[in-house]
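for the recovery benchmark. tokens below, seq after
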């Protein structure tokens, strides 16, 4: 929602003043924005360009935009999706201060830990209906989970397998990847993922995870280094070649890379099979077979509404995510590169995804898991790599790591053990 090339002040006042007034009174506008920020404890240089700000500071600019306009009620939809633990806590400090000063804050989130940390009152929706309203002190995470899905949720836990890079199915060596502006986003990164192993990649957004995931998915060509899969050099392979060699890819931007919104759900589920010659006879698509396969996958993955001929773009974000997961995980890949698999999913859907990932691991799939959810990484991974400014700041067996270790490494603190 921000214009990267604009300054903080320009973004904050955008739409609230005529353009000629913004140009003539630039200094006054910056002073106004600075005063509002200081009033609410959001201290940001109003003359700094938004493109240079870390993601958590950009989040605070969004809040400052609302406060500048005199908003007394703030509605935040998944506000922590791109933040690490330290940034989430800083955001919550700001929100608590706003609440204490008389503002009303509504947070829409699937993360129960966030609800428990900050909510004074909670409303639970299930299938569009209110099923529970409770005040702080009268609810816990288990109660909310049951209300959200209608039944008890079993905690998914993984038994880590100690391993190293030897005999890796996916082998990355000295990889260098440049970003959209030509800067080095991934700087000489090396690691491996063995068959039957989940390696998690942690880091605050903007530290090279997106570029690394794109390079391993064939969406961005590395500037240097190598990617070897099953002993075969795949450094410059495109997504189709990777698919043919048993690699499934789930990016963090489903609408840009994973789905074609104008095609039906059935067509999207069949995309990878059609590309390899499936669902075709004499040059014609076997649409009845596509619909039948789609119905089975929609039932298995709980995609709603269960109508294969609906355009994929008409589904909710969570159901679009389930659609992508259904297509890629059902291929039984030998390597899975997956980014933010449970973003936008409720606790029941997240539990299903976690169990499916662990099942793939048991089937000897090598899984590289990118996630901004630290709890998810610690629950599923055998090993964790922490990226900071494009380099591996810390890595280790998950049994030897704590949340504090990973959080400190994500913040670039050298004291991570």
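predicted aa per position
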């Amino acid at each position: 929602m921000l214009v990267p090339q604009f300054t903080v002040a320009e973004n904050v006042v955008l739409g609230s003043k005529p353009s000629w007034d913004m140009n003539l009174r630039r200094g006054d506008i910056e002073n106004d924005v600075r005063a509002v920020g200081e009033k609410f404890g959001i201290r940001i240089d109003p003359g700094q360009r938004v493109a240079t700000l870390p993601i958590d500071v950009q989040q605070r600019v969004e809040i400052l935009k609302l406060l500048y306009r005199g908003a007394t009620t703030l509605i935040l939809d998944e506000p922590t999706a791109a933040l690490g633990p330290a940034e989430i806590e800083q955001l919550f400090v700001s929100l608590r201060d706003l609440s204490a000063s008389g503002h009303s804050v509504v947070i829409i989130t699937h993360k129960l830990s966030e609800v428990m940390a900050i909510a004074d009152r909670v409303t639970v929706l299930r299938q569009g209906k209110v099923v529970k309203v409770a005040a702080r002190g009268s609810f816990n995470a288990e109660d909310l989970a049951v209300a959200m899905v209608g039944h008890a949720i079993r905690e998914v836990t993984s038994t880590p397998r100690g391993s190293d890079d030897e005999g890796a199915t996916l082998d990355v060596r000295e990889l260098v990847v440049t970003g959209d502006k030509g800067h080095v986003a991934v700087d000489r990164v090396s690691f491996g993922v063995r068959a039957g192993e989940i390696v998690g990649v942690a880091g605050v957004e903007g530290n090279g995870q997106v570029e690394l995931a794109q390079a391993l998915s064939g969406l961005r060509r590395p500037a240097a280094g190598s990617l070897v899969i099953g002993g075969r050099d795949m450094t410059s392979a495109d997504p189709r070649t990777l698919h043919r060699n048993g690699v499934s890819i789930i990016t963090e931007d489903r609408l840009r890379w994973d789905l074609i919104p104008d095609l039906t759900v059935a067509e999207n589920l069949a995309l990878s099979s059609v590309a390899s010659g499936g669902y075709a006879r004499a040059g014609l698509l076997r649409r009845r077979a596509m619909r039948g396969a789609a119905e089975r996958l929609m039932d298995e993955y709980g995609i709603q509404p269960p109508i294969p001929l609906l355009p994929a773009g008409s589904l909710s974000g969570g159901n679009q995510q389930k659609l992508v997961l259904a297509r890629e995980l059902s291929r039984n890949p030998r390597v899975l590169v997956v980014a933010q698999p449970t973003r936008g999913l409720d606790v029941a859907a997240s539990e299903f995804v976690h169990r499916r990932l662990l099942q793939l691991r048991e089937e000897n799939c090598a899984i590289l898991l990118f996630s901004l959810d630290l709890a998810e990484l610690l629950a599923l991974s055998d090993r964790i790599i922490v990226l900071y400014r494009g380099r591996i700041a810390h890595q280790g067996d998950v049994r030897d790591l704590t949340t504090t270790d990973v959080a400190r490494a994500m913040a670039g603190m050298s004291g991570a053990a």
